Amino acid sequence: MSLAIISPGKNSNAWITAIQSLDPALNIQVYPEIKDPEAVEVVFLWNHPEGLLGEFPNLKLISSMGAGVDHILRDKTIDPAIPIVRIVDEKLTWSMTNYVVMAVLNYHRQLSRYQRDKIRKVWDMSNPELEVTIGVMGVGALGYDVMEKLAYMDFPVIGFGFTEKKDFKYPYYPKEDLEGFLKAVNVLVCLLPLTAETENILNSSLFSKCNPGTYLINVARGKHLVEEDLIEALNNGQLSGAMLDVYRTEPLPESHPFWEDPRITLTPHIASVTNPKAASPQLIENMKRVKYNEPLLNLVDRMKGY
Ligand code: NDP
After folding, report:
1. Are 109 and 10 in the same domain?
2. Where in the sequence is the domain holding 262, given as residue range(s)?
3. Is residue 82 included in any domain, yes or no?
């Protein structure tokens, strides 16, 4: 069995070290230096060139290098019979939760305001804490942990997801009641997967249903957000600010208006980066499982798209 690592433009050395420390005998080929495509039974992917997987006639398993699989499912040439798995690991979750907690606290305790005040030497003790009720869109591996940690800090949290959920630990709205969810919160965290249904979900129609002054945190995918609608919602007061980690075009072009907008805080898609040491054990485990025809870990439902 050979594993092909396919992540154009990224250095794979840390992955090779982590994977070989668990399975020193495993044959690993790294794209574009794949000399023996017939031997490839498992691919480990991030943003592969469309159509490439057709070159591996014995492919049995496709694994995403991250939590998202939109970068795989957009390739319509992939044989639907080949299972797709994704990464769910404690380190990835930990980093994402830390990022969202930071974003919520920066808003709640207004760090940007005090940074601006410092430059102008302003001593303003008014309204030091903003009231927040945090709505988390997507209560899966990442969103649920965000809710747990924020709730532990005594913040009110409300979830929003695809399916009805009985006995969910926190107040929860299914997708049919987006309006009810938006009316109940004033900080909106997007942790949805990117699917046909969720693409462009953060648009002017959604913003018009928010409580005026809602704060947006998008850590999921750039294509969830209609970027010009964000500017419009900031201008008309439906939103008071945003913290963004993901963009429709990455890297964010130099001419993009987000760079200059003081109401928007930016980071360069670093909210939670998969850690090779933490994530490799589940790749190796899934390779074993596919070999022995056992149920796979973190299997993606292709019909749902996540
Ligand atoms: P999961 O698949 O575990 O959870 C997805 C959640 O979204 C589920 O709660 C699901 O609902 C809900 N959902 C799906 N479709 C809809 C819909 N149409 N309407 C409402 N809710 C919906 O995903 P993860 O938590 O592991 O990851 C979420 C996303 O975070 C990834 O897909 C990725 O794009 C992004 N991400 C970003 C990173 C970054 O660094 N910026 C790093 C890692 C991930 P239900 O529970 O009912 O099924």
Report:
1. no
2. 90-266
3. yes
- Residues 6+ away with beta carbon under 8 Å from 238: 207, 208, 210, 212, 213, 214
Q: Which domain CATH number covers 158?
A: 3.40.50.720
**Integer Cα distance of 146 and 98 in angstroms:** 8
What tens digit of pLDDT does each residue of 263-306 get? 999 999 999 999 999 999 999 999 999 999 999 999 999 999 99
Q: Which of 221, 224, 256, 302 is catalytic?
A: 221
Any domain includes 296: no
Span 10-69, pLDDT tens digits: 999 999 999 999 999 999 999 999 999 999 999 999 999 999 999 999 999 999 999 999
CA angle 280, 29, 58 (to 5 degrees): 95
What Rg, from alpha-carbon coordinates, does the chain have?
A: 21
Q: Which of 71, 248, 269, 302 is catalytic?
A: 269
For residue 202, what are the β-bridge partners? 225
Provide the pairing of β-strand 157-161 with 172-174: parallel
| Nearest CA, atom 35, ligand 1 | 220
34 CA to centre of ligand 1 in angstroms: 32
Smallest CA-to-CA distance from 83 within 297, 270, 304, 292 is with: 297
For residue 297, tell me if it sits in a domain: no
| Tens digits of residue pLDDT in 141-153 | 999 999 999 999 9
